[in-house]
């Protein structure tokens, strides 16, 4: 069985300039089996056709929240209500598992300084570890993991590719190289313009989770929809790693 892990981010991974209102960098991974991905892809396209009469619109969390670009139609309150009903139903009903890794940059800087390791690479390592634990727990035939990440830039993508290859060669602190190799792991970088619904889904999930990390007590109905989808272990939310 092939599993796809679509990864997108929320917040800035840089450590030099800290936004006091958003002191978090978060990577969100949506893990889904290949058969289930066909369902989520088709249902997202159905929403796009319903509101825009095509499937070329690219869902982007910020544009939706701000009603910008194609999402200016959401200034119509009735359309907006209907759109969110459709989107929320999709988030709740589809079969996928969420893994997220958040770096509290304010705490991280105090502990490790501004010139320490790349927080993007750190967050990716956490997500890969938890995903491997989850896949190992599934009773099924041989499993493969294909990771898809949105392109950021040639330099950044090359650095992340090198980090991934180091993980494959050495493993992590908790997952051996042999366990990673057994999953025949691959990584691919895709452009937002390629309109990959799996990446768009990861983008929609990332922001509410980041908001939860920043303030757990703030009302966050979007996070409440996502919460049941997290990887759970021993009744605990094991799919969300907050560091440090």
From TrEMBL:
InterPro entries: DUF3800. This is DUF3800 domain-containing protein. It comes from Gelidibacter salicanalis. The lineage of its organism: Bacteria, Pseudomonadati, Bacteroidota, Flavobacteriia, Flavobacteriales.
């Amino acid at each position: 069985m092939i599993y796809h892990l679509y990864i997108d981010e929320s917040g800035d991974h840089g450590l030099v300039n800290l936004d006091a209102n958003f002191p978090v960098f978060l990577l969100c991974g949506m893990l889904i089996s290949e058969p289930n991905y066909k369902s989520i892809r088709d249902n997202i396209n159905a929403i796009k056709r319903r509101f825009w009469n095509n499937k070329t619109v690219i869902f982007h969390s910020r544009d939706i929240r701000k009603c910008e670009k194609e999402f200016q139609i959401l200034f119509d309150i009735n359309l907006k209500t209907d759109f969110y009903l459709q989107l929320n139903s999709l988030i709740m009903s589809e079969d996928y598992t969420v893994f997220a890794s958040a770096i509290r940059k304010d705490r991280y800087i105090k502990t490790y300084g501004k010139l320490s390791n790349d927080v993007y690479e750190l967050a990716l390592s956490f997500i890969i570890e938890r995903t491997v634990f989850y896949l190992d727990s599934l009773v099924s035939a041989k499993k493969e993991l294909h990771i898809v990440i949105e392109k950021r830039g040639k330099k950044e993508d090359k650095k992340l590719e090198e980090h991934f290859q180091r993980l494959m060669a050495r493993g992590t602190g908790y997952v051996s190289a042999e366990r990673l190799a057994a999953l025949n792991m691959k990584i691919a970088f895709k452009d937002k313009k390629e309109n990959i619904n799996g990446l768009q889904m990861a983008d929609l999930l990332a922001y509410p989770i980041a908001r939860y990390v920043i303030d757990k007590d703030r009302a966050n109905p979007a996070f409440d929809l996502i919460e049941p989808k997290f990887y759970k272990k021993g009744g605990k939310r094991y799919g969300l790693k907050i560091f440090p």
